[in-house]
């Protein structure tokens, strides 16, 4: 059984249809990049699947059940730009939020929860920043804190929206190492990704999206010149140089 099954999914913003009959299955233990040009509907796809934006039609099944039944098994790291970083909270508290599924809302976290959150911050090289207000962290540091939050959540299926955008090489490596560890533990990870040069190195599966699914499958077989052109149209002149 696929961990994620999307069928005939369509969505719009007012009259502007941005997802059209999207259909794909994702198997457990895969690391998938979602690629496509600006405005292709990648972020919207995540939001619609996670019921943050309404769908027009179609179905989405997680582990064979609905989103609300599967919620505690799903982790989401939104695009950094979409988060209100002025929210007065420190890095440790952000990570603790990933534990609410376990602690329960309005219950006081235990020492062991705090230890788990600290360990995750440490894993992302952010232990020294636990007490720092999130608004006072750099973009890459904020991204590491978000990854730590996803780690403590201990989900089975993760969605990350451009986690590598604007981070330095060390942070990029730390994030990709973390995602590979999750995959090797049998978790399933889907990542909106923009750097076409690293798709083959980083991801075993690719979902090529432009309002509908253009191609989906093993990166080695799917991420071809032809599919890249079909996905991006004429917008990628540099690809011609790269691919000859
Ligand atoms: N809140 C919104 N209200 C109206 N239109 C929106 C909204 N969010 C996105 N759109 C439009 O929907 C389309 C798909 O946007 P989406 O953010 O899903 O694309 P994307 O593939 O993630 O793009 P990018 O690579 O630029 O992040 C775009 O045309 C965008 O302008």
TrEMBL record:
SMART domains: AAA (SM00382)
Family: Belongs to the ABC transporter superfamily.
Keyword terms: ATP-binding, Nucleotide-binding, Transport
ABC transporter domain boundaries: 4-236
Single Gene Ontology MF annotation: ATP hydrolysis activity
Range of residues in the leader sequence: none
Listed name of the protein: Metal ABC transporter ATP-binding protein
Matches recorded under Pfam families: ABC_tran
InterPro entries: AAA+_ATPase, ABC_transporter-like_ATP-bd, ABC_transporter-like_CS, Metal_Ion_Import_ABC, P-loop_NTPase
